[in-house]
């Protein structure tokens, strides 16, 4: 399953701001987001996965406060 990594800055008030985004390819032929998704004729709706796994990591804001 492909992963979308989102880096956020969390401020002291609790507000989160997305700062970076990166997609990691799972390499699966049955994942529609993968570069290896099968291009041949197949029943994609019933055999392939069509959702990302989201991972969030917290960085530091400009004040050096880490969430």
What does this structure look like?
It is a single chain. The protein is 6% helix and 36% strand. The protein is mainly beta and 67 residues long. It has a three-stranded mixed beta sheet with strand order 2-1-3, with no helix packed on it. A hairpin with a 5-residue loop joins strand 1 (3-10) and strand 2 (16-24).
Q: Summarize this, please?
A:
The chain contains 1 helix and 3 strands, in the order ββαβ. The protein has 67 residues and is mainly beta.
Question: Topology, please?
Answer:
Elements: E1 3-10, E2 16-24, H1 44-47, E3 53-59
Parallel strand pairs: 1-3
Antiparallel strand pairs: 1-2
Question: How many domains?
Answer: 1
Major β-sheet profile:
3 strands, mixed
| Global mean pLDDT | 78
As a whole number of angstroms, the C-alpha radius of gyration is 17 Å
**Total count of helical runs of at least 4 residues:** 1
List SSEs in N-to-C order. Answer: EEHE
What structural category do the secondary elements indicate?
A: mainly beta
Strand order of the largest sheet: 2-1-3
- N-end to C-end Cα span: 28 Å
Low-pLDDT residue spans: none
Q: Report the portion of residues in β strands.
A: 35-45%
Indicate the percent of residues in helices: under 10%
Total beta strand runs: 3
- Shape descriptor reads elongated
């Amino acid at each position: 399953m492909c992963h979308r990594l989102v880096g956020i800055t969390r401020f002291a008030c609790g507000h989160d701001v997305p700062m970076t985004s990166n997609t990691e390819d799972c390499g699966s032929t049955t994942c529609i987001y993968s570069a290896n998704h099968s291009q041949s004729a197949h029943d994609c709706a019933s055999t392939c996965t069509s959702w990302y796994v989201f991972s969030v990591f917290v960085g530091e804001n400009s004040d050096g406060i880490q969430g």
